[in-house]
TrEMBL record:
Sorted UniProt keywords: Repeat, WD repeat
InterPro entries, per database record: Quino_amine_DH_bsu, WD40/YVTN_repeat-like_dom_sf, WD40_repeat_CS, WD40_rpt
Record-given protein name: Uncharacterized protein
This protein's record includes keyword Heme: no
Pfam annotation, one family: WD40
Length: 260
């Protein structure tokens, strides 16, 4: 099972659409001109662009293959056979786009974008991994497990576990601060602000556990915006205090984002 759908290129100049017949269409945003029309063996393929916009990964829920294509020509660069993977799901791109992650039930694999070579594996036996996030400098990843409510910090150079934070009931989101010195993790009574260098929780921004979804930092790292899934509110926090709340939104508010 491959679960991703990122139709826009990073610069916003192109987007993709997929159809049930397996065709994947590339469009120019400004003119809505069709740039490419690719026929794939994937029924309604999903797609995600690399951060540089030069590579696009495609797959679908029926074929256990992941295909990397040149985003300009549509040419296939390589195809990864994932038939032996346990429910593979696309995880995250490294910020530079040189690597990407695939998460399985209790394992995360890191691949080289250019060649498709497997670079690393991280295993948490018996724990279903729900989220994977690269740090902004590309040197670390954080994985979170639903069953044990624990987020784990891994060093990508050594492959070693560097730290962990537990008690994350219904963890839904992980967000590195822009400078990578703090991590906001939802679950277990609110937003946990974690200092990965010292493996310590700095503070807890209290919100009903089931009401927390995906936190986002401001570009300067001074504030956090938190959409609330059940109460349909968006809260903005300075560390240690709530600044303001947007109420009266439509039901099930799941996402929020800052302008650059």
């Amino acid at each position: 099972y491959m679960d991703f759908q990122t139709p826009w290129s990073p610069d916003g100049e192109r987007f993709t659409t997929a159809q049930m017949d397996g065709s994947l269409h590339f469009w120019e945003t400004s003119s809505v001109k069709e740039l490419l029309n690719l026929s794939t063996e994937e029924e309604e393929p999903g797609a995600t662009w690399s951060p540089a916009g030069d590579i696009i990964l495609t797959s679908n829920v029926y074929i256990n293959e992941l295909t990397a294509r040149d985003a300009a020509s549509g040419e296939i660069k390589y195809t990864l056979d994932m038939s032996d993977y346990a429910l593979p799901v696309f995880g995250d791109w490294s910020p530079s786009g040189d690597r990407f992650s695939i998460r399985e039930f209790d394992r995360v694999r890191i691949f080289d974008t250019a060649s498709g070579s497997l670079l690393q594996e991280f295993n948490v036996p018996g724990v279903r991994i729900s989220v994977v996030r690269f740090s902004h400098d590309g040197t670390q990843i954080i994985t979170s497990g639903r069953e044990d409510g624990t987020a784990r910090l891994w060093d990508l150079q050594t492959g070693e576990l560097q730290g962990a934070i537990g008690g994350l009931v219904q963890a839904q989101g992980i967000a590195w601060s822009p400078s990578d010195d703090l991590v906001a993790i939802s679950g277990g009574g609110g937003i946990h602000i974690w200092d990965p260098e010292f493996n310590a929780e700095k503070e807890l921004l209290p919100i009903l556990a089931a009401d927390v979804f995906l936190p986002e930092w401001t570009p300067d790292g001074k504030q956090i915006i938190v959409p609330s899934f059940i109460s349909s509110e968006i809260r903005v926090f300075n560390l240690s205090q709530a600044l303001y709340t947007f109420s009266g939104l439509s039901d099930f508010t799941g996402f929020a984002a800052w302008s650059p």
